[in-house]
Give the backbone structure.
Amino acid sequence: MAAPAPEAMEAAGEWYHAWFIGIILTTLSRRGPDDAVALVFRVFRQQQQARFLPGLAKLGLTGLPPAIAAARYHYLSNAIGGVGVEYHEESSRKAWIRYPPPRWIWQGTAICGIPPAVNAAMLRGWHAQNGVSLDCPRLGFVCTGQTVEGDPGLEGYYLEYAHDLREDERLRFTREERMPHFDPAAAPMLPAAWSPERLAKAKRGYAMEYARSAMQAAEALWGGEAAGALLGLAARLVAMQHAHKTALALGVAGQGVLPFLQALAAAQGDVAQLEGNMLTQPDAALLRGLTLHPAVIRAWSELHGGAILALDRDARCIFSAADGVLRWNVEAARSG
């Protein structure tokens, strides 16, 4: 199978990025801020445990001082994912990172709906845990600004203290410092050149991984049925809002429902066969390696259901996942 064009991979990444943001906002509006804090914490802790140490090795950062390794990891990995990020190395024990606006994680006007506690849960889930993973109990993260509170970016620094830190000391907040200005020439570089295709694939994977983590975290916190209901609602709403824009980006605007679903599958790295009104996939990259409640898998299919409603409000779709094979049976709009 030929690799999809970079533009198609970018569209698929934006599709799942929007769903992830929608999941957080739907959690806030339907379940409240405490559940949103718990969800964001679990998503980022899960990402940290799965990605941080392997990422250090892939990026050539193993063996560096802990503060430098942690800050460089965030700078390089986020840059690969298409996230705006800045870096400043103050000493071997203190290194800054800054995520300037516009923030990727809370894209567009979504940032207006994110309470500071939800944003801080991201830092507790990941940044505060890096010292533990590096076997350096002296390493903590100091946050000096949050965009959700009106600051010009999320910023802070990794600091290796002279003493071991308690768990509640690994993340600290202060407004007494600001990151020095970013010098791109002094920032770390990727260990090898990345082609546009490789970068597009990485950006797509970056966004899809957040959606994967949110599905797992929601099920672990609330159980399959409750998680599926919320994830599915968010999927349907997001898909209805983004279907036309995504169809245009995929080059299938105006071609109808089934060409859209097939193009979306290809853009996200899947192979979908179309026979009549039936679209069939042997598996899905997003779900690969996951063991999820059937209700959570059905929730993912609401991305397709929402798109169908936006493109043809009278069309109907029946989704099934029997024997691991994914099927969408789309009934065309009735005439008359």
In short: Residues 232-331 form one domain.
